[in-house]
Amino acid sequence: MNTLDKFDIAILNELQTDARLTNAELAQRVGLSAAPCWRRVRALEEEGFIKGYRAEIDRHKIGLGVLAFVRLDADRSTGDLTRTMEEAIRKIPEVIACHYISGTGTFELQVVARDLDSFSLFARDVLLNLPNVKDMHTSFSLGEVKASSALPLTHLVRVKG
């Protein structure tokens, strides 16, 4: 599967919206019969376009009211030290996203916590003790305007000329 056609794109779009669709429901929505739809979904999974299926949990409902954006500055940016830092960050469940960034800083983390006190303890006891951390800068979310893991797919649709 080198390129995605309109059916593959439609399947990805529908599954991003509702991954609990049955194959029959999905096939109906994308305009295929059940067997070809199932084969396409399996191919999309095998090729890595679909990485997995998971429930989206409301962090507020489970008591994680704080979302912090934390920029970590590395003391030194050598390959081995950076990889060691990356490995340590990957093991921390409170870090829900981490990006290696350009500009000021080395890593930008999204961190969840119950409240400001628990974040403060976490930052002091965990983040500042990560290997190779020189400095830390934190901003807090005051409200989510948009939080979505769905990716735009419109760029995949070929324009017929």
Percent helix among the residues? Answer: 25-40%
Element-by-element helix/strand order: HHHEHEEHE
Count of DSSP H/I helices: 5
Classify the secondary structure makeup into a structural class.
alpha+beta
Task: Tell me the span between the first and last alpha carbons.
Answer: 24 Å
The stretches of 5 or more residues where confidence is low (pLDDT under 50) are none
Major sheet: arrangement of strands: 2-3-1-4
Portion of residues in beta strands equals: 15-25%
What's the main sheet like? 4 strands, antiparallel
Report the C-alpha radius of gyration, rounded: 20 Å
How would you sum up this structure, described in words?
The chain has five helices and four strands. It has a four-stranded antiparallel beta sheet with strand order 2-3-1-4. The radius of gyration is 20 Å and the shape is elongated. The longest helix has 13 residues, at 34-46. Helices cover 34% and strands 19% of the residues. α1 crosses α2 and α2 crosses α3 (34-46). A hairpin with a 6-residue loop joins β2 and β3 (107-113). The mean pLDDT is 92. It is an alpha+beta fold and 161 residues long. It starts with 5 loop residues before the first helix and ends in a 21-residue tail after the last strand.
